[in-house]
User: Fold this.
Amino acid sequence: MNRSTVWGALTAASLLSGCATMNVEDNATVLSHGVAAGEVRHDSAVIWARCVGGSSVPVTLQHGDREVQTDLEVSEESGWTGTVRIDRLDSATRYTYAVDCGERGRGEFRTAPAPTSSAPLRITWGGDIGGQNSCRDAVDGYSIFERIVEASPDLFLAVGDMVYVDNRCEPVGRYGNAQIPGPPRAPDLETFREHWSYNRADPHLQDLMARVPYVGIWDDHEIRNDSGARDDRGPDGDVSLFPIALRAFMEYLPLSPDLTDPTRIYRRLRWGRHAELFVLDTRQYRDRNDRLDLPDAPKTMLGELQREWLLESLAASDATWRIVA
Assistant:
């Protein structure tokens, strides 16, 4: 992880990522999937991009006459994606940013209000795209995201199944429409990346992620149907999909990993005085679905540590609304 101190503390972190193979000629760089902002708090945000052929990719953040410049680190090993977390931002402030990768990818976000500030919050939420052969329409794509942008939300909460790695998108969709064909069912990291790339190539989703702060959660289809940490074998039954799935999930989202436990994705986000969002991981620590749930041996969906964290965090929060996702 590279660190710099421009406009306070800027932490640049590269997350391993990628998607389908792209040929880059003559040292050209290609911004392949737009830009995104996530983990937006009252004083920080994470910027994401995929810059094929890049290395240290310039990122410029601006508000009024204040400007900060830093780099977003990518490499072929990382699948050409990376993130940079920018700290010491002003609360309740609209920022614009640009990522220079052959072309300038532009985005915007508004930081959360200070924890003591009363302010409204508008959340839109959704999930389950590209599954059961209901995929990217050949003409309209995922046009629902255009409607979401028009609602001007403060946050978009993606509650899981934002890819279906265990499904394939055919040329003719479930409802008889022409679709953009997608990759096969995912047995390995490369194919997992292709599924994320397929959905993220949609221009409506790219526009949403460039204009609305993104909060990502995963569910079973980011891994395989009905999966859990003890039930995650691949099609041949000999490969554990969880490490592959988690890597691809982290690669394609504007996340700031917990460096003490990089597999941890449950977290909390505060939005002013009145709202706090508790984002859970209901896949990584759960018992098998077919295990009996008995009084003397109850099943768990969260695991012991996450459950304790949730109960303690809910009790400690002074937010008017405590939203569990």
